[in-house]
Each structure stands twice: as structure tokens, then as C-alpha cells.
């Protein structure tokens, strides 16, 4: 950066000196033209003076000639009377002519005097103007020499050299400083385009020449380029070329003039700074990696802490559920009476469903539950929810629905949304022990990611559930979405209701928020993403699913590595009327099919040991046997996302007999569609 000062000084000085030179040249040309005009005027006056002098001489000769004639007449012998009369007449005529000639001579003399005076005045003025122009020309010449000397000094001390390229004439001139800048000998190197290209370092030659040709092609008046040269004594040097392109009246390049400046020190500083920046960047990247590792360790610690809290709550609830089941099984084995047997079975069934619901809530909060989002008409859906909520709430709670007619459709999993709103309704019911009002409202909102507290941006539906209950204080409000946090008595709540709502909303692409004050009720707001704009109220709602008809008996191949689960699943399938063959792994299933086992459907668990899980097996079967139905089932939270990505039907554990029957029918329909698609030409 130290040579930037001289570079900035040379460029304006050079431009100013060039302007002064142009002005001096123009002034000299004007003086020369004016002097030529004065000389022509002087010559014209001299010619007129010569002509008038000749006329004066001719006029002076006429009286002398007349006098000579009169003298000759007096000396001649006297004529007769007639002759005397004739001579008298001639004498009178001659006298008259003489008087006229004298008058003309006087006029001519006066004009001649006036012309002489004008000529003298013009000569004096011309001499004064010529003297003034001569002095001015001398001054301009001195200024020109001074400017050229300053330019040479500026170029020498700033490390700059000028050049002038006559593009049409093919002539190129370099200043003395240009030769010194490149380390060239003026006696051995002739300025030319080829000599300039040869002086550029080989690694920069192509790019530099391309920059010049691009300037000429685009008629860019400003030419800028930077390149390296190899100086014979100073080694590698960086030069910056700056030029001005002039075009002719047709717009074709005619002349390019400019200068080159040595910018080696600046370039070295830039390279040093770039190297320092690269080093700093590497250090920052290393620091960032170290910070990420520290954050990962911190997150792992927090996860372990949260896992400890979570497992405690889960273990407490599952121990209660398992106690119901294990005690019920023990009592059933002792042969209880039918009424007691039915009560035990109901309690065990209820415990199993509570366990499944608890698992689903945990997966939703952890965002491991696979959602099935689809366009949903929230306005019509809320009307359907009114009836469902009316059965879940007490009669002293009034339900209000408030939605606009132009409410957008939401993209959300209807089943999970129903569960979330039911959870909010139950919480509201418990917060209104003496009755009250539950108000469900929805509206369209546009969010800005820059101002939204959760950085959400775009179109959303704001679904609010508001009650008139006891409300929450700040300390409770701050922990409302925390899992296993509950204000209810022990055994009356899991603390996963609002946590499930929050997890579902976040997993759906939105969020959940709560506001409340003690004694003023609470409002839980769900922000749900808007469905595609093409989906609107005029879109046809999905037709309700019809009852699943009884399926024909099937030959099933069950792939399950857990013996207890396999035994219970096979017994359930046989109860539905199907024939079951069981293998313990995916490779075993492939060997059985290769050995000729004929089956109508393959039912496989997703998570299995042995290196090949159920999804790998299903994908291979679909590829090799498109017409063979394949149904996967799993209780693992991460499996649904993988299965959904593969486009295969999935049955979630735990499941009922009816859910199993419907899943088998769905798998058969999917296989039929695959078979039709494979058989269709094109």
C-alpha cells in the first residue's frame, strides 16, 4: 500500500499535464493562423498601395504632356485665321482636360494619403499583434517544456512509464521511463505490440492480452490490467496498466494511450494480508471445530440429564401399567370367575392402550413419531371436533367455534392434530372445575422470520384454544411444555399433554405457544403451516374410509426375530383365518422363497438383527416380486420415516385385530397397483 500515494499523484498530474499540452498546442495553432491572416492583409494593402501609386504617376504625367504640347504650339508658325480658331478651340479643350485631370489627381492623392495612413496603422497594429503573439508563443513553449519536464520527473520518481498506440496506423511509442520500468534498451528494442506481449510474464500473458482485446471489442474507454514482468536487474515486478481508448467517427478503435505503474509493494502487501487472512481463517475453523465439539459434549451431557429425568417418569408410568398387566395375568391363571375375568381383561386392555398412548406422546415430543401431513380444511374439521369435544368434556362447559369463511387449509396430520386438541380440551376441562367456556378460533397469518420469536416465516393458520379456567402463574407457565411436568396430583396426569402438543406442532413445521394469568384462564396457540395455495374450500374432501371387508384366507410368511412376539403374532393371524409360516431373519425368508415356499403375503418386522432389517428385505422383495404383497410392522419411532420414504405400508405396534385386518388388505391393494403399473406399457 505504500506506492498507492505516488500512483494517485502521477495519474492526476499526467492528466493535467496532457490537458495543458493540448491547450498549448491549440493556442500555438491559433497564433499561427492569426499571423498568417495578418500577413495576407498586409500583402493586400501593399498591392493596393502600388496600384494607387501607379495611378498617381499616370495623373502627374498628363499635365506635363499637355504643357509640352502647348510649348510646341507656340513655337510653331502662326496659322491662318481658320487655323488659329481651330488651335484656340483645341487649347480650350486641352485646358479643360487638364483641369479635370488635376482634380482627379487631387482626389487620388487624398485617397492615397488615406490608404497610406490606414496601411501605416495596420502595419503598426500587425507589428504589435505579432509581437504579442510571439511573446505568448514563447511563454507557451516554455510552459510546454516545463510540463514535459514535470511529467518526466513524475514518471521517473513514481515508477511510471507512458505509451501511445496508434491502432489504425500500427505505430506504438514508449516513453524513456517506460523502457526503464521494463528494463529494456531503447537502442535494441523497437516499441511494438509483439514486444509488449513478450515483456509480460508467461503466466500472465494470455490473461493480459485477453483483457486488452476485450477492451477493444467492447469499446470500453477505460483500460485496466495488472500483470507481472521479469526485470533484468530487479526480478519479478507487478505493473498496473491504465489507459484511455479513443474511437473514430465510425466508433472503431483508433488510439489507446496510457501509462504503467509499478505496484509491486502493494501486491506484496496484499499477498501478505491474504496469507495472514488464510491463517486466521484456519485458526477460526479450528476454533469453530473445537467449539462444536465442546457444544456436542455439552448437548450430550444435557441429553443424558434429560434422559435421566425422562426415564424416571417413563419407568414410573410403565411400572404402573405393567403391574396391572402382570397382576391380571397372575389372577387369570388362578381361574377367576367370569365377571372378575372380564374386569381383569378390561383393566389389562386399558393399561395396554395407556402404554401405547404414552409411547406415542413420547415419540411426538421427541419428534420421532412419523407424521402423515395432508391438506386439511380446518374450518370443517373444527365443526367435527365440536361433537368429539362435547363427549370428552362436561356438560357445564360451553364450546364455541370462531373461524372466518376464507380460512386457509392447513398441511397437518389430522389424527395427531385431533389428539393435540383433545389434550388441550382435557387440560381446559380440569382447569374449569365449576364449568366455563372453551373457545376454538382460527385465523390466517403471515409471519416474518426476522421478527417472529421462533424465526418462522410464511403463511400459517393460527389455531387457538382458550378456556376461562384458573390460569397459570409465571413459574408454571415457564414449564408448561416441559415433559413430565404437571400440576395435577400424583396418578392423575403424566405431564405429557402439553409436551405432546408442542412436539407435534414443531414436527409439523410450526410451533405452539401458551399465554395465561392466574384467574384469567389460558390460551394455547398452534401455528400450523398453510397447505399449497391450490388447495382451498372448493377442493373435494377425502371420502370416508369404508368398512374393511372380510379378506380371504392368506398364506403368510412371518419374519420376526423375537420368539415371543412371533408366537403371539402368528396366533393372532391364525385367529383371523390365515395360514402362517415363520422365519427369524431376512436371509432365511429369501431362502424359503427360493426353495419354493408359496405365500400370498410377507409380514416382516422392521428392526431385526443379522445385518438385513425388514425394510431391506421388503425393498428386495418388491424389486424381485412386484406382485407379492409386503407389510412391515414396527414399534420403533424412527422406522415410520424410513418406511414412508420407501413408499411401503406400515403397521404400528401395538395394534388391534381390526387394524391388523385393514393393514393386510392395504398391503394387498398396494401390491396389485404395483403389478398393474409394471404390466402397463411405457
TrEMBL record:
- Compositional bias of type Basic and acidic residues: which residue ranges? 56-73
Q: Which reaction does it catalyse?
A: ATP + protein L-histidine = ADP + protein N-phospho-L-histidine
Which superkingdom is the protein from?
Bacteria
Q: Return the annotated region ranges for Disordered.
A: 56-80
The record's listing under SMART domains reads: HATPase_c, HisKA, PAC, REC
Q: Which InterPro entries match?
A: CheY-like_superfamily, HATPase_C_sf, HATPase_dom, His_kinase_dom, HisK_dim/P_dom, HisK_dim/P_sf, PAC, PAS
Q: Indicate the segments forming the Response regulatory domain, all copies.
A: 555-668
One MF annotation (Gene Ontology) recorded for this entry: phosphorelay sensor kinase activity
Name the Gene3D superfamilies on file: 1.10.287.130, 2.10.70.100, 3.40.50.2300, Histidine kinase-like ATPase, C-terminal domain, PAS domain
Q: Which UniProt keywords apply?
A: Coiled coil, Phosphoprotein
The PAS domain is annotated at 147-219
EC number(s) stated in the UniProt entry for this protein: 2.7.13.3
Q: Where is the PAC domain?
A: 223-275
Alphabetized PANTHER family for the sequence: HISTIDINE KINASE (PTHR43065:SF49), SENSOR HISTIDINE KINASE (PTHR43065)
Protein's recorded name? histidine kinase
Native source species: Roseicella aerolata
List the lineage, top down.
Answer: Bacteria, Pseudomonadati, Pseudomonadota, Alphaproteobacteria, Acetobacterales
Amino acid at each position: 500500500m505504500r506506492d498507492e500515494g505516488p500512483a494517485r499523484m502521477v495519474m492526476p498530474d499526467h492528466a493535467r499535464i496532457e490537458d495543458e499540452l493540448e491547450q498549448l498546442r491549440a493556442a500555438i495553432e491559433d497564433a499561427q493562423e492569426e499571423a498568417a491572416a495578418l500577413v495576407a492583409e498586409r500583402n493586400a494593402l501593399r498591392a493596393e498601395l502600388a496600384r494607387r501609386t501607379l495611378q498617381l504617376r499616370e495623373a502627374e504625367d498628363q499635365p506635363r504632356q499637355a504643357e509640352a504640347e502647348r510649348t510646341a504650339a507656340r513655337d510653331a508658325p502662326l496659322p491662318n485665321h481658320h487655323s488659329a480658331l481651330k488651335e484656340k478651340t483645341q487649347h480650350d479643350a486641352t485646358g479643360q482636360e487638364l483641369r479635370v485631370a488635376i482634380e482627379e489627381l487631387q482626389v487620388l492623392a487624398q485617397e492615397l494619403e488615406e490608404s497610406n495612413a490606414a496601411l501605416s496603422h495596420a502595419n503598426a497594429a500587425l507589428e504589435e499583434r505579432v509581437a504579442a503573439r510571439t511573446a505568448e508563443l514563447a511563454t507557451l513553449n516554455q510552459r510546454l517544456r516545463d510540463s514535459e519536464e514535470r511529467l518526466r520527473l513524475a514518471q521517473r520518481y513514481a515508477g511510471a512509464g507512458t505509451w501511445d498506440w496508434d491502432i489504425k496506423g500500427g505505430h506504438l511509442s514508449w516513453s524513456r521511463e517506460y523502457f526503464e520500468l521494463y528494463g529494456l534498451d531503447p537502442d535494441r528494442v523497437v516499441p511494438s505490440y509483439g514486444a509488449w506481449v513478450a515483456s509480460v510474464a508467461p503466466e500472465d500473458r494470455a490473461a493480459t492480452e485477453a483483457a486488452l482485446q476485450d477492451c477493444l471489442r467492447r469499446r470500453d474507454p477505460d483500460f485496466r490490467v495488472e500483470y507481472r514482468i521479469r526485470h533484468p536487474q530487479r526480478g519479478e515486478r507487478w505493473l498496473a496498466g491504465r489507459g484511455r481508448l479513443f474511437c473514430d467517427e465510425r466508433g472503431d478503435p483508433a488510439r489507446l494511450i496510457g501509462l504503467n505503474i509499478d505496484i509491486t509493494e502493494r501486491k506484496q502487501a496484499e499477498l501478505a494480508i491474504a496469507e495472514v487472512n488464510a491463517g486466521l481463517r484456519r485458526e477460526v475453523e479450528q476454533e469453530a471445530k473445537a467449539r462444536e465439539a465442546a457444544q456436542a459434549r455439552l448437548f450430550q451431557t444435557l441429553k443424558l440429564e434429560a434422559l435421566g429425568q425422562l426415564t424416571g417418569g417413563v419407568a414410573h408410568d410403565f411400572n404402573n401399567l405393567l403391574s396391572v398387566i402382570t397382576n391380571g395375568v397372575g389372577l387369570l391363571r388362578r381361574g377367576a370367575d367370569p365377571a372378575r375375568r372380564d374386569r381383569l381383561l378390561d383393566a389389562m386392555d386399558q393399561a395396554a392402550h395407556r402404554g401405547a398412548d404414552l409411547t406415542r406422546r413420547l415419540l411426538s415430543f421427541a419428534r420421532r413419531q412419523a407424521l402423515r401431513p395432508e391438506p386439511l380444511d380446518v374450518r370443517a374439521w373444527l365443526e367435527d371436533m365440536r361433537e368429539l369435544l362435547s363427549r370428552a368434556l362436561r356438560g357445564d362447559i360451553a364450546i364455541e367455534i370462531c373461524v372466518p369463511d376464507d380460512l386457509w387449509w392447513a398441511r397437518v396430520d389430522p389424527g395427531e392434530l385431533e389428539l393435540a386438541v383433545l389434550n388441550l380440551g382435557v387440560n381446559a376441562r380440569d382447569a374449569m372445575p365449576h364449568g366455563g367456556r372453551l373457545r376454538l378460533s382460527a385465523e390466517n397469518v403471515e409471519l416474518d422470520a426476522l421478527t417472529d420469536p421462533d424465526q418462522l416465516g410464511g403463511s400459517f393458520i393460527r389455531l387457538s384454544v382458550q378456556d376461562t379456567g384458573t390460569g397459570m402463574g409465571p413459574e408454571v407457565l415457564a414449564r408448561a411444555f416441559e415433559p413430565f411436568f404437571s400440576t395435577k396430583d400424583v396418578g392423575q396426569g403424566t405431564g405429557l399433554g402439553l409436551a405432546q402438543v408442542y412436539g407435534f406442532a414443531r414436527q409439523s413445521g410450526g410451533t405452539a405457544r401458551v399465554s395465561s394469568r392466574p384467574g384469567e384462564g389460558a390460551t394455547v396457540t398452534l401455528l400450523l403451516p398453510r397447505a399449497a395455495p391450490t388447495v382451498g374450500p372448493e377442493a373435494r374432501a377425502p371420502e370416508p374410509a369404508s368398512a374393511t371387508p372380510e379378506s380371504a384366507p392368506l398364506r403368510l410368511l412371518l419374519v420376526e426375530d423375537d420368539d415371543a412376539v412371533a408366537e403371539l403374532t402368528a396366533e393372532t393371524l391364525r385367529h383371523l383365518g390365515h395360514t402362517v409360516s415363520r422365519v427369524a431373519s431376512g436371509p432365511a425368508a429369501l431362502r424359503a422363497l427360493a426353495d419354493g415356499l408359496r405365500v400370498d403375503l410377507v409380514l416382516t418386522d422392521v428392526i431385526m438383527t443379522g445385518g438385513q432389517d425388514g425394510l431391506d428385505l421388503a425393498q428386495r422383495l418388491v424389486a424381485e416380486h412386484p406382485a407379492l404383497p409386503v407389510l412391515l410392522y414396527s414399534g420403533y419411532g424412527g422406522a415410520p420415516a424410513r418406511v414412508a420414504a420407501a413408499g411401503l405400508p406400515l403397521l404400528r405396534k401395538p395394534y388391534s385385530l381390526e387394524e391388523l385386518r385393514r393393514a393386510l388388505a392395504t398391503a394387498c391393494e398396494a401390491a396389485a397397483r404395483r403389478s398393474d403399473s409394471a404390466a402397463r406399457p411405457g
